[in-house]
């Protein structure tokens, strides 16, 4: 089971082709040779990651992994392959958000380009990547955030078939160095969705004005302004409703990588925490002899393994998606909301154990504790993603349909459907296969069986005491309901991946021990909401369940945790 955790010391992704393996290994080796001291010193000094961008350019890292086959000019190593995009996201997260972030923002910046039918813009982006450049996604604004219904970036016709763009963008990663900045705006005098436009700008242009870095960090999250910036037909990516769809579909692609960044951060922190705690003597005993410490480590480990299982399985649904199978649109916000908040919980548990160590200047845990807070708040907050998840709940729970089995997708294929997702609407019509199948497969695992009863209880609640019209307008009430529903979805894909990969059933039982407790906690929270009715309160009390306790199972999982002490330590 320990092999599920990424370990730079023995990492060998044999399922990838030779060039992918070389690039992933080269990335690991670059960080390892650089060493932990340099990593943390540059973090605390807030030194921009120019050396990493130089490395990525030299190795053709971004160009190889982020150029679709259609734009690769026959290069057999270039394709958009979600499995290897996820793998690099995890590796970069392992060494810090500061290195994951420029990769992530480049992915977002490329989204509108690879969805565009503009050959000049596509060729420009492919050449930029080949030359070692990076991209940016110019959507958010200071006064509107990511509210794409309201934008003050205005394109004024220049009388010669082009436009002049004027306006500001805010919180734009890579905005200081990006050669391709995909910018969302509107055409002057055109009201509503018909006025939307996506176009390409270049941070090196004289009419592109970099205002500042808006965060006190190693990464550069820019505020920039365009003043009378010339926009020609070769720069226009999308107009009208298609521009709106491109914005949302880009987030669909880019949002997915946050979970793997969080997993990587949590993995590195876990190695450091268990090695420190297991070798630290207090009151004549290793810290890990204390029962509460063991419990915290086992809980963190179970949550980390669960997150990896869910996110790895979600990759398969992304890669197998098509116009008739859009289940990925639910699993995407779940990876973003649930996996990233779980990473926060994992880091909280680890820092609780190591205490003062997590504040020390030479500790990766200090980096992790700072970085991990950002992921649930990027590409939409937890509330935004929960509201999105709720759109799928009726069909997921009550209207299953038949689909062909989705296999493990680690093949060297180009995931071209991600750039022709179509209109970003109709989420309530997306259908799913029967979620109960996965739970029935593992009914012999005690805590899976117990959690499955809670999941059935949620369906019963929605049938017998559903949210009233008023409650359906009460976002506070709905968000807690969304947490309950998300756990059911999360558990389903974890079980599917467990079946595909042969996960240790005792570890699986420990994972669902956490879910039984979490579901009970959210039921208590729902009970306490101001608008909860008496039948809903009675239901909530009935869902409070204790996990099946098994001392031998706990000891078995603890032994796996204990074996991680000293399994990896970054060179000084």
UniProtKB/TrEMBL annotation:
<dbReference type="InterPro" id="IPR036250">
    <property type="entry name" value="AcylCo_DH-like_C"/>
</dbReference>
<keyword id="KW-0285">Flavoprotein</keyword>
<keyword id="KW-0274">FAD</keyword>
<dbReference type="InterPro" id="IPR009075">
    <property type="entry name" value="AcylCo_DH/oxidase_C"/>
</dbReference>
<dbReference type="Pfam" id="PF00441">
    <property type="entry name" value="Acyl-CoA_dh_1"/>
</dbReference>
<dbReference type="InterPro" id="IPR046373">
    <property type="entry name" value="Acyl-CoA_Oxase/DH_mid-dom_sf"/>
</dbReference>
<feature type="domain" description="Acyl-CoA dehydrogenase/oxidase C-terminal">
    <location>
        <begin position="244"/>
        <end position="391"/>
    </location>
</feature>
<protein>
    <submittedName>
        <fullName>Acyl-CoA dehydrogenase</fullName>
    </submittedName>
</protein>
<dbReference type="InterPro" id="IPR009100">
    <property type="entry name" value="AcylCoA_DH/oxidase_NM_dom_sf"/>
</dbReference>
<comment type="similarity">
    <text>Belongs to the acyl-CoA dehydrogenase family.</text>
</comment>
